[in-house]
Design a protein that fits this description.
The chain has 401 residues and is α+β, with helices and mostly antiparallel strands. Helices cover 51% and strands 21% of the residues. It has a 5-stranded antiparallel β-sheet. The protein has a 5-stranded mixed β-sheet with strand order 7-9-10-12-11. The protein starts with a helix and ends in an 11-residue tail after the last strand.
C-alpha cells in the first residue's frame, strides 16, 4: 500500500514538474511575445516620429519664405533651405547664435523686440552682401519653449526683386522725362522767339524752323521706339515667320542706309553666303540690322568700313556679327549697352539723334526669335555686335541675354 502511495506521489510530482515546466514555457513565450510587440511598437513609434520630422523639414524646405527658429538661448534650432539660399549659408548651423549665421544687428534687434512684445510684423530689413543690397519683409513671433525660456520664429520674405523693379521703374520714368524735356524745351524756345516777332531775317527764321522740325522728329522717334519696346516686352507683337535668304535682308538695309553711310564716307561690306536661309519675321530682323548697322555708321570711324558676317553655329543656330572700326566701347560698360537709355557718350549720342532705345529693341527682337545678343570688342579697334537666332523658327532652343 505504501509502495502504491509512494508511486502515486512520484507520478504526481512528475506531472507537477512537467505541468510547471509547460506553464513556464508558456509564460516565457508570452513574455517574449509581449517584448516583441513592445519592441515593434517602439520601432513603429520611432518610425512615425522620424517620418513626421522628415515631413516637417520637407514642408519648411518647400516654403519660398526663409524660416529661422531660435531657442530660448538665442541659438539656431532650425533653418530652412530658402533662408540658406537667401543668405548663402552652408554647413551645420544648429546650435549657433543668430549673429554667427546672419550677420545683421538689425535682425538681432527685431528678434529681441519680438521676445519683448510677442510679435513683429511687416518690418523691412536691408542687408548688404557686398555685391548687392537685399531687401526683406520680416515677421517674427515668440513662443514658450519652457516656463522660463522664450524662443522666436522668424520668417523673411525676399523683396529684392520688387525693390529692383520699383527702382527700374523710377529710373525709366526719370529717363523718359529727361529725354522728352530736352526736345520740348528746344521747340518751345524757338516757337516763342518766332511768335514774339524777334526774327526778321528769313534765313534765321528758316534755320529756327529747321531746328523745330529736327526736335519734333526726335520726339516722334522716341515715342515710336517707346511704343515698340513696350509691345516687345509685353509680347503684344505677333511674329510672322517666313524663310528667306539672310543676304537679301542685309542688302535691303544697305540700300536704305547707303546715303547715310556715304555722308560719313563709310564703306558697307557684307560677307554672307547667298544660300544661307533663315526662318524669321523679316520686318523685325530687318529692324535689328537697321539699328546695328546705323549705329556702326554713326559711331564708327569716318571714311572707315563696316562689315556684316554670318556663319552657321552649333545646334542649328546662325551667328551674325556687325563690326565697325571706330573707337569701340569701354569694357567696363560693355554689359550695359543693351539697357534702355544707356549711352556711352551721352552728348554725342543725342547730337547724332539717337533715342537710347535701339539696342534694347534689338535685344528683345532677338530674344523673341529664341536667340541672344552680345557685344565683343574688335581685335584692334571698333565694336562687334553679334546675335544668334535659330535657322528654323520651330527650334525649341531658347536663350536669355
Amino acid at each position: 500500500m505504501w509502495k502504491a502511495l509512494s508511486l502515486g506521489l512520484v507520478i504526481l510530482l512528475v506531472l507537477e514538474f512537467f505541468f510547471e515546466r509547460r506553464r513556464r514555457r508558456k509564460l516565457t513565450h508570452q513574455l517574449a511575445e509581449s517584448r516583441s510587440a513592445h519592441s515593434e511598437t517602439e520601432i513603429r513609434l520611432s518610425r512615425e516620429l522620424q517620418e513626421a520630422a522628415t515631413q516637417q523639414e520637407t514642408l519648411f524646405d518647400r516654403m519660398i519664405e526663409g524660416v529661422l527658429i531660435l531657442d530660448g538661448q538665442g541659438k539656431v534650432r532650425l533653418v530652412n533651405a530658402a533662408l540658406r539660399d537667401l543668405f548663402g549659408l552652408t554647413g551645420e548651423l544648429q546650435g549657433k547664435r543668430l549673429i554667427e549665421t546672419v550677420r545683421s544687428h538689425e535682425l538681432q534687434e527685431i528678434v529681441l523686440h519680438a521676445k519683448e512684445v510677442g510679435h513683429v510684423t511687416g518690418q523691412e530689413l536691408m542687408i548688404s552682401s557686398g555685391v548687392e543690397n537685399k531687401h526683406f519683409a520680416v515677421n517674427a513671433s515668440s513662443f514658450k519653449e519652457s516656463s522660463s525660456r522664450t524662443g522666436v520664429i522668424v520668417i523673411l520674405h525676399d523683396l529684392t526683386g520688387m525693390k529692383n523693379l520699383e527702382s527700374g521703374r523710377r529710373e525709366f520714368v526719370a529717363n523718359v522725362s529727361h529725354e522728352l524735356r530736352t526736345p520740348l524745351s528746344m521747340i518751345k524756345g524757338y516757337v516763342e522767339t518766332l511768335l514774339e516777332g524777334n526774327v526778321s531775317d528769313p534765313k534765321v527764321e528758316s534755320r529756327f524752323l529747321g531746328k523745330i522740325q529736327k526736335h519734333s522728329d526726335r520726339l516722334t522717334f522716341l515715342i515710336e521706339d517707346l511704343l515698340a519696346l513696350s509691345q516687345l516686352e509685353s509680347n503684344q507683337i505677333a511674329l510672322s515667320f517666313s524663310r528667306l535668304p539672310l543676304a537679301e535682308l542685309i542688302d535691303r538695309v544697305f540700300e536704305d542706309l547707303r546715303d547715310k553711310a556715304a555722308s560719313r564716307g563709310v564703306t558697307l561690306n557684307s560677307n554672307i553666303a547667298p544660300d544661307l536661309e533663315v526662318s524669321v519675321d523679316s520686318d523685325r530682323i530687318q529692324q535689328v540690322f537697321q539699328n546695328l548697322i546705323e549705329n556702326g555708321i554713326k559711331y564708327g570711324r569716318p571714311e572707315g568700313e563696316l562689315f556684316v558676317t554670318a556663319k552657321l553655329g552649333e545646334d542649328g543656330f546662325v551667328v551674325v556679327s556687325v563690326a565697325d572700326d571706330g573707337p569701340g566701347i569701354p569694357a567696363e560698360v560693355g554689359d550695359r549697352v543693351f539697357e534702355r537709355f544707356f549711352r556711352v557718350d551721352k552728348a554725342r549720342s543725342r547730337d547724332q539723334g539717337g533715342t537710347g532705345l535701339g539696342l534694347a529693341i534689338v535685344k528683345h527682337i532677338v530674344q523673341s526669335h529664341g536667340g541672344r545678343v552680345w557685344l565683343d570688342q574688335g581685335e584692334q579697334t571698333g565694336a562687334v555686335f553679334s546675335f544668334s537666332i535659330p535657322i528654323d523658327s520651330g527650334s525649341e532652343k531658347r536663350f536669355e541675354s
